[in-house]
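User: I'll paste a sequence; please echo it back and then give the predicted structure.

Assistant: Echoing your sequence first, then the prediction.
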Amino acid sequence: MIRPAMVFSCCAFGLGAQVSLTHIGTVDVAVTSNAANPEYIGANPSAVAWNGTDLWVAGFNNAAGTNSTAIVKVSNALTTPAFGATFGVVPATPSSRGYSGLDIEGSRLVSAHDFGTNTPDGISQWDLNGNNNWMKDGRGSSGAAFDPGFVGVVDPGTAWMTFSVGRRLLQDNTTGADLYTTANGMIVNAGSGTLWRDLDFDPLTGDIYLRRSNEIVKCERIAGNTVINNQVLVSAVPAAFVNQQNLEFVQHGGEQLIFWNDRASQNGGQLFESVIRCHRPDGTFLEIDFGTFTAAAGAAAYDFSYDEQSGTLAISDFSGRAVYIFAVSVFSQYGASCPGQGSIAPELSAVGDTRGGGAITYTAASTAPSSVGAFVFGFSRTSMPLTLPPNCLQQVTPILFSAGLYFTGAGAPGSGTGTFSLNVNPGLAGITLRAQSVILEGGSLSSVITTNGVETVLQ
């Protein structure tokens, strides 16, 4: 069933990127956990793939004794969800084993299944209707992903990792034949330990990102089978050998993000908002504000799948037996805010849905009291001093329009706030929109203060 949609945002306060996730809906997949149902995939969902229309969910045996695990397709997931026939059924999967990863590219789906040892179907590739293309003998302990190759050209294929091997393994996308193996695959180890949990790639460069011991490891691609600067991008505190530590690399409009789950233990009661994390590829942490969105506490086991064409992200919830779908929007702050009354510099931020028909909410915070402000919009950056005192910077040019006149009440310096909601015209997709707020402190032209700028690419 589809539950009502809500909105939450992930924001990096202080100049940087702000990420907003608009909750489109939630797909309830609890029926897949009942062994009496034809769509049974295991006790809990452990992996997800999403193409903007349909979902594929793979299962995990979280029950005592052996049980089957499988994959199921959910067609038209956000409108009229329909569960198809299961495929990739692995009978007698041991307890605490099952699917460790799914990935989708075009008309192909790849899965990794962990039976606790090598099995003939450890890595499998399927068409989108669940027909098998090929299988690779191995232990699918550590996820699988489509490797775009170096700069999207050299050595693409179906990539996977496995325990105790410090190399990326690669199969031919069409035949499943070995391209690189445990003997000659590119070395991705950084520091000690090869107990990998997941992997994903930058689709433009081919850089590889991996999970291990609750860390994120990054390796920079310089050739089809060669990486350099292997590094622990995000250190875990504490480090933990726990399954279902996942990540997703998101390429969105000129911005790159890494979503991941901070899972240091399998204990229940962990808060969704404390577990879901966001970093940039340079290691910058993006603090997340979840607004009014709530999800029941669980065991911190989440998986991710991003569809670039629709700009939407699926997050599967192991404990909640659900998949949440969000539209992703990225807002970048730039330029310098100008200190005003009390030497406090106001700051502009934005959240919302940048898709056509969506709405963006701009907020100018820490403005002066008893003042009047507005928001100005344009398509280009600038850094030009105004002629009005104290010669703060204009960050937007040309100014195409202004809107959202606001008045701040009496109070201490920096106590004022102004907001404006902008409806997104579908005809502006692909345009970079820039905004700034201008404040007349005390309503006077003798002190015209400006904020930083915020830019986003409309979808």
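The two ends are 27 Å apart (CA to CA). Helices lie at 272-275.
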